[in-house]
C-alpha cells in the first residue's frame, strides 16, 4: 500500500507538470470549447476555455504503462494492464475525433450520431474479442454474494457492447460542469481498487493507480473555475476505463451500481425526452440532472460535492454485494 501511494503521488506530480505544458499548447492551437446554445446561460462565459484536456489521460497512462506496465513491481499481469490501457485509449481516440471536428466546424456538432455509435460498437466488439480469446476470460457473469451466475456464451458480445456503449455515453453525459465526471469516476475507481486488493487482482490495482493519479492531476486544472475541459476525449476514455475494469474483475453486472450517479444522469435525459415527446412537459428545468440543480441556484462546486457523496453511497452498496 505504501508503494502504491508513492506511485500515485509520483504520477500525479508528473501529470501536473504535463498539464502546465499541455494547456498553453491547446490554447495556442485555439482548441477552445464551443458551448452548446441550449445549455445554461452561465456557461456562455466558458466559451474559449481549452478543451481536449483528456489528452492528459493519454499521456499519463502511457507514462504509467512504460514505468509500471510490466507489472513486475506490483506482481501484476502486464498483459492485462496494457489491455486496459489500450482499451481506454481506443475510446478516447473516438472522443478525440469528435472533439477535433467540433473545433474545425466551430460549432457543437462533431461526429454524427450514427458514425460515433458505429465506432463505439466496433471498438467494443474488438476489445471483447481480445478479452475472451487472447486474455482467456469467460463469458460467465454473475454476483458472488448471491451465488448467481449465468454463461452468456456468444451473447456475451451483445452484453459487452451494451455495457461499454452505455458506460462511455453515461460518463459523456455527466461531463457538463467543472470537475463532475472526473470526481465521480474517482469514487467508482475506489470500488475497483478495494475489490482488486481483496481478490489479489494486482493488474487492476496498478490500473487504478494510473486512474487516480491522472484524475487528480486533471482535477488540479479542471476544478471550478476550470482552466481546461476534458471534452469527449476524456469522457469516453474514462468510460472505457471503467468498463475495462468491470470486465477484468468480472463485476460487469455491478458496474451500473458502482457508477450509479452516471446511470441517474442518463435516466434524467431519457425521462426528460420521453416526458416532453409524450406529454409536452419537462420533468427537469434542464437535463442532464446536474443542469437542473444548476438552474435551481446550486453552485458547481456544491453539485460536484453532493453528487460525489451520492457516488460514495453507491460505492458502499456495491461493496456490500461482494
First-to-last CA distance: 21 Å
Q: How many H/I helical runs?
A: 12
Classify the secondary structure makeup into a structural class: mainly alpha
The general outline is globular
Summarize the structure.
The protein has 322 residues and is an all-alpha fold. 68% of the residues lie in helices and 2% in strands.
Write the layout of secondary structure elements.
Elements: H1 2-28, H2 55-68, H3 78-105, H4 113-133, E1 140-143, E2 148-151, H5 155-174, H6 180-198, H7 202-222, H8 231-248, H9 255-258, H10 260-279, H11 289-295, H12 300-320
Antiparallel strand pairs: 1-2
Helix pairs in contact: 1-2, 1-7, 2-3, 2-7, 3-4, 3-7, 3-8, 4-5, 5-8, 5-10, 6-7, 6-8, 6-12
Descriptive account of the structure:
This protein is mostly helical and 322 residues long. It has one domain (2-251). Helix content is 68%, strand content 2%. The chain is built from 12 helices and 2 strands, in the order H-H-H-H-E-E-H-H-H-H-H-H-H-H. It has helices at 2-28, 55-68, 78-105, 113-133, 155-174, 180-198, 202-222, 231-248, 255-258, 260-279, 289-295, 300-320, and strands at 140-143, 148-151. The protein has a two-stranded antiparallel ribbon with strand order 1-2. Helix 2 (55-68) runs antiparallel to helix 3 (78-105). The longest helix is centred in the first third of the chain and has 28 residues, at 78-105. The protein is globular, with a radius of gyration of 19 Å.
Amino acid at each position: 500500500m505504501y508503494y502504491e501511494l508513492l506511485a500515485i503521488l509520483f504520477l500525479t506530480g508528473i501529470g501536473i507538470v504535463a498539464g502546465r505544458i499541455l494547456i498553453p499548447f491547446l490554447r495556442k492551437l485555439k482548441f477552445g470549447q464551443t458551448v452548446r446554445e441550449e445549455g445554461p446561460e452561465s456557461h456562455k462565459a466558458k466559451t474559449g476555455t481549452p478543451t481536449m484536456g483528456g489528452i492528459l489521460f493519454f499521456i499519463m497512462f502511457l507514462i504509467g504503462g512504460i514505468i509500471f506496465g510490466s507489472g513486475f513491481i506490483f506482481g501484476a499481469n502486464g498483459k492485462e494492464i496494457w489491455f486496459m490501457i489500450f482499451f481506454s485509449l481506443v475510446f478516447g481516440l473516438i472522443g478525440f475525433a469528435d472533439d477535433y471536428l467540433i473545433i474545425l466546424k466551430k460549432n457543437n456538432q462533431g461526429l454524427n450520431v450514427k458514425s460515433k455509435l458505429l465506432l463505439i460498437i466496433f471498438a467494443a466488439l474488438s476489445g471483447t474479442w481480445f478479452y475472451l480469446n487472447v486474455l482467456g476470460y469467460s463469458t460467465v457473469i454473475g454476483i458472488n454474494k448471491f451465488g448467481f451466475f449465468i454463461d452468456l456464451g456468444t451473447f456475451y458480445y451483445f452484453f459487452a457492447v451494451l455495457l461499454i456503449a452505455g458506460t462511455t455515453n453515461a460518463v459523456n453525459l455527466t461531463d457538463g460542469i467543472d470537475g463532475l465526471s472526473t470526481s465521480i469516476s474517482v469514487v467508482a475507481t475506489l470500488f475497483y481498487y478495494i475489490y482488486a486488493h481483496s481478490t489479489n487482482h494486482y493488474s487492476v490495482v496498478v490500473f487504478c493507480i494510473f486512474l487516480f493519479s491522472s484524475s487528480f492531476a486533471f482535477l488540479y486544472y479542471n476544478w471550478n473555475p476550470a482552466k481546461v475541459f476534458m471534452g469527449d476525449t476524456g469522457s469516453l476514455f474514462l468510460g472505457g476505463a471503467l468498463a475495462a475494469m468491470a470486465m477484468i474483475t468480472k463485476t460487469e453486472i455491478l458496474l451500473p451500481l458502482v457508477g450509479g450517479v452516471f446511470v441517474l444522469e442518463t435516466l434524467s435525459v431519457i425521462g426528460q425526452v420521453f416526458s416532453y415527446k409524450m406529454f409536452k412537459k419537462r420533468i427537469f428545468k434542464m437535463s442532464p440532472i446536474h443542469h437542473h440543480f444548476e438552474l435551481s441556484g446550486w453552485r458547481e462546486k456544491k453539485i460536484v460535492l453532493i453528487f460525489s457523496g451520492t457516488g460514495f453511497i453507491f460505492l458502499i452498496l456495491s461493496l456490500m454485494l461482494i
